[in-house]
Design goal:
By secondary structure, this protein is mainly beta. Helix content is about 10%, strand content about 50%. A 13-stranded antiparallel β-sheet has the order 7-6-5-4-3-2-1-13-12-11-10-9-8. The longest helix has 9 residues.
């Protein structure tokens, strides 16, 4: 039965199209002053809240520092109690993002997993994992690793609107390497729609279709099942902000996806900055 993996909710929520890690750094067109944006989303299944995720990005001239927190709550915690914290830093310009460090910590009951990616001058990510896991059984090539950004680096690129255009406001493809898996999130712009979130937003938003495409680092069975995953959808709105490299940012207002058991949604409930 096809289902959307819960651990990819945050990438699906915040990714559009990042630049490739490791590319030669272009002249910086970043903001001349610092900025901070803090977001919080409520995650629900069949309209029943079961978790929340928060996302904060701080921009300084030429650089970014992004953090996120995901946690389940309520009745779902009895079956799937999970907490994920992650941070990412790097450089940013209107041409793209180059990450320097990604650090994530996942807890589920007595199980835990820490993954850290550090990036050299050539853009090649080096993976540290605790507990250690095998990287050779389902390998990701060096070229594939360099094609992707870490999940939060890609999320920052999306928020900064680095690849959007009037003809394609949703972007095209987000290439991600999370230390173990290489996947794309592919985007298609469908149309603009009126959207209202009480107390947060009222206006037009882009309706974007998102498709999760597994590339490498997965078991063959998961790759086969992944091809049958249904698409997800998101409402994304434009906000002017002179601190962003291109003078605005793209804000996901709501994401929803069908699973084999029902619909999962992530809805913006708080915005600061």
């Amino acid at each position: 039965m096809s289902r959307l993996p819960p651990q990819i909710l945050l990438p699906l929520l915040l990714l559009l199209t990042p630049a490739q890690a490791g590319a030669e750094k272009p002249p910086s067109l970043a903001a001349a002053h610092s900025s901070r944006l803090s977001l919080q989303y409520s995650i629900a299944f069949w309209t029943i809240p079961f978790g929340r995720t928060s996302f904060e990005v701080r921009l300084s001239p030429g650089g970014y520092a992004t953090s996120s927190h995901f946690e389940t709550s309520g009745i779902v915690s009895a079956f799937w109690q999970s907490i994920i914290d992650a941070t990412s830093t790097g450089t940013i310009s209107a041409q793209g993002i180059s990450p320097t460090l990604y650090d994530s910590y996942y807890r589920r009951g007595s199980k835990h997993q820490r993954v850290r990616l550090t990036y050299g001058r050539d853009g090649m990510p080096i993976t540290y994992a605790d507990p250690l896991y095998t990287l050779n059984k389902y390998p990701v090539s060096d070229a594939q690793k360099k094609e992707g950004l870490d999940p939060l680096g890609a999320a920052t690129a999306v928020l900064a609107g680095l690849s959007s255009s009037p003809a394609n406001p949703c972007g095209t493809v987000a290439a991600v390497f999370d230390g173990r898996r290489r996947y794309n999130i592919e985007f298609t712009y469908l149309r603009d729609e009126p959207v209202k979130l009480e107390g947060l937003y009222s206006g037009s938003a882009h309706l974007c279709q998102l498709h999760y495409n597994q590339i490498a680092g997965f078991k063959p069975k998961i790759l086969k099942e992944g091809r049958a995953l249904p698409p997800a959808y998101a409402w994304v709105a434009d906000f002017p902000d002179t601190a962003m490299p291109i003078g605005r940012y793209l804000l996901p207002l709501k994401l929803w996806a069908a699973t084999g058991f029902g619909t999962v949604t992530a809805t913006l409930v708080q915005k600061n900055g």
